[in-house]
């Protein structure tokens, strides 16, 4: 009973957060009611089936029993950041609730690996790898007992001990490296892909296990017969980053619409009266940015890089502005994508618990292209037009634009893909219950 009450409170809190965000948006947008109704009517008249298909025309799905290592390879080879997870036990089911378990995200997997390595260092430093029973191919429980953890954290602890064991007793042993915790973690950067593809726990841990242990994106589809208004509301008010499209009576996903894809689509609407009118407005006329400067989550350049990634994880956001000084001058940007560089560079990873954000971003800026180039902070001014912000988001393939004010480019706010989409839609009364066939509570409960 206590667990059920806790879940109900969590769902209620999530719904309240979505409602509060969208109420703020609508109260600050200042669009004429007639124009907003016209936009809603237009989007409601556009079928989801008309939206451009994903590249290649086929949505990549990952079976729940796929190992973490193989899942990473699938995402990397397909050049995608996330994919729906299919339940092979109900593969023939036409009910999406049975067929799909959720959505797995590449950056979340990498963050899980990073956290596991961090826990492994703590666990293995308590005693020797031999005393802990952590050797080649062994999965010790020290990560659990040392931290006194249960549930999802216990699962992470087990994984952590296995990560340490894989490096200290496996890959590292081949190179004659000592089996101490610090050495194990220090070498994980260079040996990352070797570990994740060949060693435990990644060789045997499945995507299903991770979905159970960590809260990942829910699978909330729309029908090909639905309207784009439904998609835009899911991507804005309800904070989904992607919406799968299914066809009633058929099992396979027909399309996969992301926030980025929608903003690209809006950028292509230049020349249409309704878009030109709204996009020509200063962002301040639309109430942007929707968060006050004090509400924007940022990271100081002298704080540790691990704190930046933890802050993103804890607040369910993909990037942070890097700031300096009491006036919070914008000096850079850090995102989940940058974790890849952290793991692939051994000299960086070996010191990641002491590495500052400033030093980390400097190292990325001077790295070769094979590690992925860092994306600098993309900024605008409080008097910039919405159209210029949309152009920056689309042309630079970024998820957020920071608003800088004054001669020092002080942090004034942030505008996300979600915020931009929210500028174009409002929600008719009882729209989801009437048009999507399931309640918001059920959606968030999955």
Mean pLDDT: 75
Helix content: 40-55%
Question: How many beta strands in the DSSP annotation?
Answer: 12
Could you state the oligomeric state of the chains shown?
Answer: single chain
Distance between the termini: 18 Å
Structural class from helices and strands?
alpha/beta
Q: Proportion of β residues?
A: 5-15%
Radius of gyration: 23 Å
Order the strands across the largest sheet as they lie in space.
1-2-3
Tally of individual helices: 21
Main beta sheet = 3 strands, mixed
What is the global morphology? globular
Low-confidence runs (pLDDT<50, min 5 residues)? 122-192
Question: Would you write up a description of this structure?
Answer:
- By secondary structure, the protein is α/β, with parallel strands linked by helices.
- The chain contains 21 helices and twelve strands.
- The chain has helices at 2-29, 33-44, 68-78, 96-99, 106-125, 142-147, 151-174, 181-188, 192-198, 207-213, 228-236, 259-267, 273-279, 305-315, 339-344, 346-349, 357-365, 386-395, 417-422, 431-435, 440-445, and strands at residues 62-63, 82-86, 100-105, 222-223, 242-246, 253-258, 299-300, 319-324, 329-335, 379-380, 400-405, 410-416.
- The chain is globular.
- The two termini are 18 Å apart.
- The model is unreliable at 122-192 (pLDDT under 50).
